[in-house]
Amino acid sequence: MTFRLITIALAATALFAQGPGGPGGPGGFRGHGMSAPAKTNEVQSYLSLTDAQISSLQQLRTAEAAALKPIYQQSGPLRQSLRTQEQGSSADAAEVGKLVLSIRSLEAQAAPIRASYQQQALAVLSADQKTKLAALQSAAALMPAIHEATALNLLTQPRGPGSAGGVATQ
User: Taking the model in full, what pTM does it have?
Assistant: First the structure.
């Protein structure tokens, strides 16, 4: 019984470690809570996207958010219940386990929807744009190292659009 409680507690902690809403940010799923169009100037410039491509991509994000909305609406109360259980002095291990499994089930339902919309978004790009995007993806993989180097004062924090930061010098 103790092992089961520890396992459930670890699973719940892992879900909380993913941020306020779990994977992808607020609300638990990538793209949730999109109230205003995201800024696109930098990516539009880097990938040489046309205004028509930006419009198509924004329409796909809106459609994705609408497709995922029922899942968000189900996951929100479950996450809140899980937080309440975690913060309580006497969490019910069985209830925590049920909540974790329910949240994971919803995340599993959302994954193919997100993948479908991402494939549709990629289809908007030209071959050259896809090549540039692959380089951007490789750079994104370095983000944890960049954050750690910045925390150690090895890199300076970017100052805004067009500012790339850089190596700290003395």
Answer: 0.66
